[in-house]
């Protein structure tokens, strides 16, 4: 069972990102503040859930959260500042977009660029330990997957509706055949 909070503060925001290891598309991040009693069935790290279950939970999280926000950093920003810094940038944008200010940030992973005026705690594997981080992982993943499906309509050869921009054999073969798009991360080894 996932833990409700790290600090006990009602405005503790969980943060997570999606799409760091992709060859194409933006990196997404989400910040989520949950009510202390929020405990839906099946809430877990997004990677442990089916796509259908993630979508159902996304609707519930968006309806029940005290506050939530999703943000992104573009492939151009990833190229300019690197994927780690772009992930932090997306997380900072998500925190800034929260309708209710966070009092503490609970971040999945072992590193984070401090957000001015807010204490934070990094938790390795936090998306499998804390509800707010699990919720953030679900929102970041589902909103990013949705964006990649939209991009796939304009660039069908790359299979983004299926691979979400990750480095599959078919995706790499499409890059070899058609070349990279403006949505590819040109600083990454694409082939």
Describe the structure in your own words.
- The protein contains 6 helices and 5 strands, in the order ββαβααββααα.
- It has a single domain, classed as Nucleotidyltransferase, domain 5 (2-Layer Sandwich).
- The longest helix is centred in the C-terminal third of the chain and has 24 residues, at 131-154.
- The protein is an alpha/beta fold and 191 residues long.
- β1 and β2 form a beta hairpin.
- It has helices at residues 51-64, 75-81, 83-97, 131-154, 160-163, 169-178, and strands at 12-18, 27-33, 67-73, 104-108, 120-123.
- The model has no long low-confidence stretch (mean pLDDT 97).
- The protein is globular and about 55 Å long.
- The protein has a 5-stranded mixed beta sheet with strand order 3-2-1-4-5, with helices on both faces.
Question: What is the C-level CATH assignment?
Answer: Alpha Beta
| Low-confidence segments | none
Element order, helices and strands?
A: EEHEHHEEHHH
Q: What percentage of residues falls in helices of 4 or more residues?
A: 25-40%
Number of helices: 6
With strands numbered from the N-terminus, the spatial order across the biggest sheet is 3-2-1-4-5
Number of β-strand runs: 5
Which fold name corresponds to the CATH topology? Nucleotidyltransferase, domain 5
Provide mean pLDDT, rounded. Answer: 97
Gyration radius from CA atoms, angstroms: 16 Å
- Proportion of residues in extended strands: 15-25%
Oligomer, anyone?
single chain
